[in-house]
């Protein structure tokens, strides 16, 4: 569904970065947000809703909708669209109700 526009990549932002999503290694690019890296890897859902447990994915990509919440390095409720990837980052899908 989503694919990178290779011609639009700037060299400084194109360095590969390995992250782990739900325990699996995923290649991202330096400068990607977590949400963009998930989209580029073919993952369109990053959480399940608290009430109906329906899969949700990033929508606005600018920090307004909160549909991109993920657990990053053990810290829940992080906005994937506002968090840049870092080498070795561990990302997990949030399932059900958020824990506050």
From TrEMBL:
Keywords in alphabetical order: Oxidoreductase
Keyword Oxidoreductase set for record: yes
Key word Oxidoreductase present: yes
GO terms, molecular function: iron-sulfur cluster binding; oxidoreductase activity
This protein's name: (2Fe-2S)-binding protein
């Amino acid at each position: 569904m989503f694919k990178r526009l290779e011609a639009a990549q700037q060299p400084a932002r194109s360095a590969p970065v390995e992250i782990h999503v739900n325990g699996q290694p995923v290649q991202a690019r330096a400068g990607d947000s977590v949400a963009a890296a998930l989209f580029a890897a073919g993952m369109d859902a990053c959480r399940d809703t608290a009430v109906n447990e329906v899969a949700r994915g990033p929508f606005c990509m600018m920090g307004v909708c909160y549909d991109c919440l993920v657990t990053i390095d053990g810290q829940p409720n992080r906005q994937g669209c506002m968090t840049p990837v870092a080498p070795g980052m561990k990302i997990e899908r949030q399932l059900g109700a958020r824990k506050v």
